[in-house]
Amino acid sequence: MGLSAGAFTSLELRGVGRSFGGREALAGLDLTIRAGEFIALLGPSGCGKSTALNCLAGLLPLTHGSIWIDGERIDVLPSERRDFGMVFQNYALFPHLSVAKNIAFGLQMRRLPRAEIQRRVAEALALVKLEEHARKLPGQLSGGQQQRVAIARAVVIEPRLVLMDEPLSNLDAKLRLEMRTEIRRLHQSLGLTTVYVTHDQEEALSLADRLVVLREGRVQQIGTPEQLHDHPANWHVADFMGYRNLLELRLESLSGDTAVVAGRGLRLAATAVQEVVVGDAVRVAVRPSDLVLRRAGEPAASGANSIEGVVNVVEYQGREFAVDVTTPDGVELHVKSDFAPEAGSTVQLALDPSRALVYAERLDGTAL
Ligand code: ATP
């Protein structure tokens, strides 16, 4: 019999909020998490991700709202009675206890029989591939190994939910990628319901079934990686999803969702994806990979916008180049290219109107 996840059907956050001294760190978070889902809470520093996680964990009392598991209200329960496993950025292992004892700790607190504890600890050690390190102290392990111990300790109690707060932030880039795969594997093999906090959109996109993007304590968008990547709800989410070009222009005309935007020497056909009114200040979001650098003499694709600029910086990024181009009126554009143009040369960029997303400039911070 292997380790498994505690069973429930759905976990519901209803209007969950938390204030500190009258300031809302998290406001009105509504979210239903299905069993087995991997949810990432994503957003810049200070947006309220950790506050949300700590409210779930029972480490912070709520100031508004409630949390339910299958009709049972759980925000009133103390942390240890929620049956959640926690993994923190700094591992939070007991330095004086061996790896095996660290993993066994939660089971001993639950007063499980000795044989059961031994069996589960052995399984958890095998799961994170640390069998040979069972007797070592955490200080004798690498950062990645210590984080594996922390993960084993979280899953060994067969938790109803695993909460992870930036678990990979202290690891170097290579290890971070390895552990990312490891976390995904564990999630799949154990069917763990997971809530994972990160500020790294790539990490969130690669791990999560659904993402919750927060800004200043408020939900901006909840969706699958594809939904967020292809249809950001506002320019803030677009910015977070890698639309590095956010052009501040004015809406010149609009017919259906076909827009013309202009300003700073540019005039572009684009696509309105939010309610905007002619004359409005807008943000036009464009991914670097959607600005196509044309080779000399290459004709423009029909219907595409053509933008002229001078190449500023060319940076090799393995297989592709990150190119910064400045237009005559000083608009800086970030471009991805499969060839390296010469710095200082004048180039033409093609932009498909369907790839230039027009958003309202104003962000009121409320959920969309
Ligand atoms: P980070 O990635 O930097 O941890 P975060 O998105 O997790 O950021 P939170 O730690 O949840 O953000 O903080 C959200 C807001 O609440 C911030 O403005 C923060 O200063 C404030 N805050 C968090 N904890 C406390 C506290 N104990 N007392 C007062 N203010 C707090």
TrEMBL record:
<protein>
    <submittedName>
        <fullName>ABC transporter ATP-binding protein</fullName>
    </submittedName>
</protein>
<dbReference type="InterPro" id="IPR003593">
    <property type="entry name" value="AAA+_ATPase"/>
</dbReference>
<dbReference type="InterPro" id="IPR003439">
    <property type="entry name" value="ABC_transporter-like_ATP-bd"/>
</dbReference>
<keyword id="KW-0813">Transport</keyword>
<dbReference type="GO" id="GO:0016887">
    <property type="term" value="F:ATP hydrolysis activity"/>
</dbReference>
<dbReference type="InterPro" id="IPR008995">
    <property type="entry name" value="Mo/tungstate-bd_C_term_dom"/>
</dbReference>
<dbReference type="Pfam" id="PF00005">
    <property type="entry name" value="ABC_tran"/>
</dbReference>
<keyword id="KW-0547">Nucleotide-binding</keyword>
<dbReference type="InterPro" id="IPR012340">
    <property type="entry name" value="NA-bd_OB-fold"/>
</dbReference>
<dbReference type="InterPro" id="IPR027417">
    <property type="entry name" value="P-loop_NTPase"/>
</dbReference>
<dbReference type="GO" id="GO:0005524">
    <property type="term" value="F:ATP binding"/>
</dbReference>
<dbReference type="GO" id="GO:0043190">
    <property type="term" value="C:ATP-binding cassette (ABC) transporter complex"/>
</dbReference>
<dbReference type="InterPro" id="IPR017871">
    <property type="entry name" value="ABC_transporter-like_CS"/>
</dbReference>
<dbReference type="InterPro" id="IPR050093">
    <property type="entry name" value="ABC_SmlMolc_Importer"/>
</dbReference>
<keyword id="KW-0067">ATP-binding</keyword>
<dbReference type="Pfam" id="PF08402">
    <property type="entry name" value="TOBE_2"/>
</dbReference>
<feature type="domain" description="ABC transporter">
    <location>
        <begin position="11"/>
        <end position="241"/>
    </location>
</feature>
<dbReference type="InterPro" id="IPR013611">
    <property type="entry name" value="Transp-assoc_OB_typ2"/>
</dbReference>
<dbReference type="GO" id="GO:0140359">
    <property type="term" value="F:ABC-type transporter activity"/>
</dbReference>
